[in-house]
Amino acid sequence: MGYVGVRIAPCVLCKLLSTDGTLKASCKTSRGLCLESVLMPMGWPRSLTLCASTQVGCAVRCRFCATGRRSCAQSLSGSEIAGQALRASSMLGPALRNGVTYGRIVLMGMGEPMLNYGAMVRAMAVVAACGLHGVRSARDITVSTSGIAPALYRLCRDMPVAIALSLHLHDGLARRLLVPCFSSAAVLSMVDSCFYYLRVGGAGRVTVESCLVRDISDRPSQANGMARSLARLACMVNLIPMNSIGGGVYSPPRCRCTAGFALAAAQGRSAIVPRIPRGLDVRASCGQLRA
Is 112 a residue of the active site? Predict the structure, then answer.
């Protein structure tokens, strides 16, 4: 393909275009793995954000996420990860490509990037060096993680990308209801690693993500606790109302609970930014990717 380290881009099996301009692509790799990527035209000057996958399935098994319902996780190679960026522009028609001035990549698709660390870092190094998908530097890359602290310390040294920490709940014991594979004592170590990342990483920035699940993580008391836990971490808190994934015992929050959570969380140092869902009609929004 002309780019060192990218031997082959995933083959696009089908594309679904949302009414809001979001494009979901189901792709197949040379190893026969099926994955999903999402392209989102956003902002002005107009940017194109690629939500890329690092695994097929996910071993973290978050209760509110369709990807975690797969029986096991299979890690993608560095070529397969970077190949999604290489393929992205070809997935768009000329009408959608017009006016796009630069690109961003968020590793928020299928899988936990930190459980495929080596391939993920190699892929993003190629993306940044070659300017794939219009990425100008590592600053245009965001790695979303459920909070594997040792990998965060390592990433700080290897590549100062932006970090999105999927915290959801400040109470470690309650967090295990939603993210069962983590110990109840892990929350403090996550916050400490993010504090270190900001202090030492320099170019990196940290966003804390909170998926609001009805009657579990959408309560103002949880928001107050999160504000206390993040008191020394100057960051943005991204509120993500749970999206419907069909079946299961968990539900999206009530609108009034979302507003109450935001009001309570705003008492801390962090900026509170609700996330606007994209691609709901083609099941391309947060937590809906499954392939």
Answer: no
